């Protein structure tokens, strides 16, 4: 832009408008053009595809299931753990994964549950259950594990409900679009 405006300067000089001050006119027009031109925009960062993140998460979930198979949780917590694992498994197939991939918060929530919250809750239980035998009268770690798994299950339920809501809105929107298109024809 600066160069284009700067080229106007010699044209004004040859037209006799700039006179003896033509170098100042050319420099001024160049500067003005450079100032009004928009700055160059840096390229957007190349983030990984959300579906690739979900694929990594599937692998991590498989490793988590293997870990959980080696742990012997108490019966109540085992039931909660099974329910939670089933819910996380249900959030995986086809269209659900596509909806989750469009929701960064959903991907983050699943990732945190699979990679941090569940393993940490179970590991804490495994480490503390031995120590509670030495200190009778303290609250058993089974209760803590069960509460943590219940909270994690509720969180996963909220994610599933949010995904159902997104899909319901999408279907309503598509229905309205089809109705509007039918009315206009």
Features:
single chain; mainly alpha; 80% helix
Task: Please characterize this protein's 3D structure.
This protein is mainly α and 185 residues long. It contains seven helices and no strands. Helix 6 runs antiparallel to helix 7 (141-184). The chain starts with a helix and ends with a helix.
Q: What is the radius of gyration? A: 31 Å
- Based on secondary structure, the structural category is mainly alpha
Question: What is the count of β-strands?
Answer: 0
Give the overall average pLDDT: 81
Summarize the amount of helix as a percent range: over 70%
The poorly predicted ranges are none
Compressed to H and E, one letter per element, the order equals HHHHHHH
Number of helices: 7
Shape: elongated
Tell me the major beta sheet: none
Distance between the termini: 48 Å
Strand content: under 5%
List the helices and strands and how they pair.
Layout: H1 2-14, H2 22-36, H3 50-70, H4 75-90, H5 94-101, H6 104-134, H7 141-184
Helix pairs in contact: 1-2, 3-6, 4-7, 6-7
Task: Quickly describe the structure.
The protein is 80% helix and 0% strand. The chain has 185 residues and is mostly helical.
